[in-house]
Amino acid sequence: MSIPLLSALIFLPILGGLSLLAVPRQQTATIRQMALIVSLLEFCLSLPLLLLFDKTTPQMQFVEFRPWIRAMDINYALGIDGISVLFVLLTTLIIVLSVLVSWEAIKDKVQEFYIAMLLLEGAMIGVFCAMDFFLFYIFWEAMLIPMFLIIGVWGGPNRIYATVKFFLYTLVGSLLMLVGIILLYQNGGQTFDIIELSGQPYPLRLQLILFWAFFAAFAVKVPMWTVHTWLPDAHTEAPAAGSVILAAVLIKMGAYGFLRFSLPILPDATQAMMVPMLVLSVIAIVYGAVICLAQTDLKRLVAYSSVSHMGFVTLGLFALNQRGLEGGILQMINHGLVTGALFLAIGMIYERTHTREIAAYGGLATTMPVFAGFFLLFTLAAVGLPGTNGFVGEFLILLGSFERLPWTAVVASSGLILGAWYMLWLYQRIFFNGVNENLHGLAELNLREILTLAPMVLLIFWIGLYPNALLSYLHVSVTHLLDQVHGANLGPAIGSTLGPLF
Amino acid sequence: MTETVAVTWASMTPVLPELLLIGIAVTLIGLDLFAPSQRQLLPWLTVIGCLAALGMVLGTDPVSAFGGMFLTDGYAMVFKTICLLGVIVTALMSEHFRSVAGMRQGEFYSLMVLSLVGMMLMASAGDLMSLYLGLELMALPIYCLVGLHKRDRRTSEAAVKYFLMGSFASALLLFGMSLLYGLTGTTGIEAIGEMIADTQLIDSPVLVAALALLLAGFCFKVAVAPFHLWTPDVYEGAPTIVTAFMSVAAKAAGFAIFGRVLLMGVPQLYDQWGPVLAVLAVLTMAVGNVTALCQTSLKRMLAYSAVAHAGYALLGLLAGTAEGLTATVSYLFIYLFMNLGAFAILMLLASGPDRLGESLDELRGLAGRNPLAAALMLVFMFSLTGIPPTAGFIGKFYLLKAAFTAGYTTTVVLAVLFSAISAYFYLRVVRFMYMNEPADDRVLRLSPGMSAALGVCLLAVIGLGLFPSGLLDWAAAAISG
After folding, report:
1. What does the pLDDT read at residue A493?
2. Does A212 touch chain B (CB under 8 A)?
3. Contact: A167, B423; criterion CB under 8 Å
4. What is the mean pLDDT of residues A406-421?
5. Which residues in chain B have Cβ-Cβ distances shorter than 8 Å to A112?
């Protein structure tokens, strides 16, 4: 590639964000428009990735390489494979929608808000493209700064507690991973190159230490059960755009970290720790779902449903077979779209009513029928109704985990039932029943809001009806990943016996 | 000294930068006395003089002058650069401070430059005698600087406290040095090292006692726990500009002699001092970071943070390797800019005559009334926490890596955890600035010098964070060369 497309994707939003500094603070309309233009440009710029991507090779593509810190052999190395390309696209799309949903919701410090958001976008793309562990860590940590501000400055009443908790949880995990990175550097031939680091025969003891060091960072981000408690607070207090970005992209990075580092670099430890990981995942699924039933706060409910859904994702990943992995990755995208869409919708209704109490709602279907229609679609996708994207991902995950360890699939499927229970019950409480007195005369969605939600509806059905559109990007990369986990000899056998389902 | 050293004009070449600075110091006080109307020139004269000295330091050939008492090797060069840069940025900042605090100016700049000469002598010391001479030359002007506001009870108390503690530390050092001299019969640092290697001294309990006394003395000087108790009081009591100066330049000079004596003088005793320093480093980080958590004064918080950062810088030293030393030097270089930047913002806030502005509450809503100052403080705070892409992260990473390579795994893990704790109080500053409503709408006034200082600090913190290669290579080449 002669055009450094990935660098352009990383630095366009960063420079675009900084260029907002040139606009006088009072001209909020100009700032909003500029932010929208930058995010749209970024989205258009990411489309060629999808079109030019070669689906037949597991190699990194669009590779860029430049020495950075020679003293420690740290390089500015970028590249994407079939897994990361999807997340880059998801990120650019979600940011456009986040800019749109904040259009009227953010009234204070508008300039800072959009700068933070665009800088965050650059860092997130960097995380998905980095091919050097050190560079990855830089982007991974750099994300914390804008996210800390987005939750803390523009969030709800309890925002400061939530954002500090978010920051400290993530930081402790990340710093432990940093020690792991140094340990890996010492033992992996003094390099940070991800490709070189994977496929080396590390002793099992070392692998286990590294696995738990990385687990500290990734599990907090996912978040897996026991370290999930920052998520409900952060989700609940963040502004709509912050919740959307958190749900759609940020928490995917934990699972992405497992995929990119733990699985290929530490295959023996991954296999040794498979059962504990599966157990943790199943607990997260059931625990998150049960907690959802007791929630009285709209955003908190969706946040706990994320814990449950991310449990499905890790269940799929640690099933360590083709279907589980593909399902897990697909479910990451699905969850990003569906939960992102739910938070977008909740942001829109919150802007009108300024309450997140479920009890304060009722009968919205009468006052806002269009909104009710959108919300119904998202609810059904979250429940995993066949025909929507949620079904495909969860089905693949359950198949994969059943092949690996049948009882996990059995317990996990109870999460589906509970999921239908709490989501439909939520829908009933908000949209049906008698019209709550405070809700008379609420304005229906305007064109900007409909345009924000429409792409989500399209994607939900597109993936639901034709999942191969995304899965085709994954097949080769996932097969390659499984080769690394199980050793190269087993790889083709697994690929041929299971085969792609969709 | 048994040999005779011929002193000619040519033999003075290595000390030319120091001589130049002494000249500047005298000129400063003369200018202050005889041309009081031109006082606004003083900071700029200091800056220009230091820049000239910096140029000379960078251009000096590595030699061993005055019979090995004065070394101008790469090691001395990097530490001199750090001290000079520290004084330059401080002088730029004080151009602002002078106008608001009404300090005696000629004395201030002159004493600062004299103290700088002491630091440069420390960096170059190849002999315990010149080391001690430099140390005292650095310390005496600082005692005066701390008590510069002589009508303010707090600064007087701080000055007396610092003087007593400092003298005590110097006495410990001298005692340790005399024991070393008694054992080896020489005061040359390298000669001591050779002597210990050649003879069977390594088992001598007196040598261990000497080492302990030296360590205690050095730890006093660089504010390492449990010898840090003077630090918060003195840092808080001293005029802010002096605190800023002490916390970077004096600390760097302290580390210069610390490293010189340990790595050149007593490397044979690494098995003794390495683990001790590891324990002290962890203790320092614990004390500094945990105590900083509950401070309500921004200045005192920064004082404890300075203690904690001495602990981080120690991580490189305790590795006892060239890589470790490079890491410490790079960290001190980076710390200089981020810490001075934070102090610069503190000075902007505390411009009032009543010094009320030092409380954390003063930061409330700063982002609303002065977005630029708040954004700068944000960068410095995240850099002090060690979050990429700021330079603070690169420095800390290098230190952790060096200590890890040397085998101090537990120390590194603890350092990382204390670093996470430190995030809480650095973030509190950000929280107050961005997430609270302003108490008043006082507008901060920026002077040219202050703007320049802030610009330099910001550029360094971001620039070194994104492109650290130059600094790391330079430091590594100087240390090993």
Report:
1. 39
2. no
3. yes
4. 92
5. 367, 371
CB-based contact A69 B469, cutoff 8 Å: yes
- Mutation pick from A178, A184, A210, A220 vs chain B, by most beta carbons of B within 10 Å, is A178
Q: Quote the pLDDT of residue A234.
A: 93
Highest mean pLDDT among A355-364, B365-374, B421-430: B421-430
On whether any CB of chain B is under 8 Å from the CB of A204, the answer is no
Report the chain A residue with the minimal C-alpha distance to residue B391: A138
> pLDDT value at position B100?
52
Contacts of A87 (CB under 8 A, 6+ apart): A128, A249, A252, A256, A332, A333
Question: Contact B473/A71, CB-based, under 8 Å?
Answer: yes
pLDDT at A9 over 90: yes
Residues B333-342: tens digit of each pLDDT = 999 999 999 9
Angle at B398 between CA B393 and CA B399, to 5 degrees: 100
pLDDT, one tens digit per residue, over B437-465 is 876 667 777 788 889 999 999 999 999 99
What is the pLDDT, as a whole number, of residue A492? 41
In chain B, which residues have their Cβ closer than 8 Å to the Cβ of A182?
400-401, 404, 412
Assess: ipTM above 0.85. yes
- A185–B contact, CB cutoff 8 A: yes
Contact partners, residue B194, CB within 8 Å, separation at least 6: none
